[in-house]
Recover the amino acids of this structure.
């Protein structure tokens, strides 16, 4: 058997193992989905009660107080969660620190 034949055989085995892995993951996922559906039905839960919008996304996270403010425009604030706003990135690009943008509670 040549090296190329061995490589082809190994690649085929890898594809077969990957397919088996995916099948097992799918089976486990389906079992979990059935259990969850059963519990939802048993307790008559709604998507809203579970924090879902009905499109599969979590909605209605709690409001978080702003932690940072733009010194040039204090109306622009950021909680520190999620992506950095443009004004924060610009401030940091000029060598400013995130700590310097902290809102001081007095």
């Amino acid at each position: 058997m040549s090296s190329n034949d061995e490589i082809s055989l190994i690649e085929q085995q890898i594809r077969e193992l990957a397919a088996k892995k995916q099948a097992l993951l799918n089976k486990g996922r389906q079992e979990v989905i059935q259990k969850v559906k059963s519990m939802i039905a048993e307790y008559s839960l709604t998507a809203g009660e579970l924090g879902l919008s009905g499109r599969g996304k979590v909605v209605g996270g709690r409001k978080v107080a702003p932690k940072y403010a733009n010194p040039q425009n204090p109306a622009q604030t950021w909680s520190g969660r999620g992506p950095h706003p443009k004004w924060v990135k610009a401030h940091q690009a000029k060598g400013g620190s995130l700590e310097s943008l902290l809102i001081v509670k007095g």
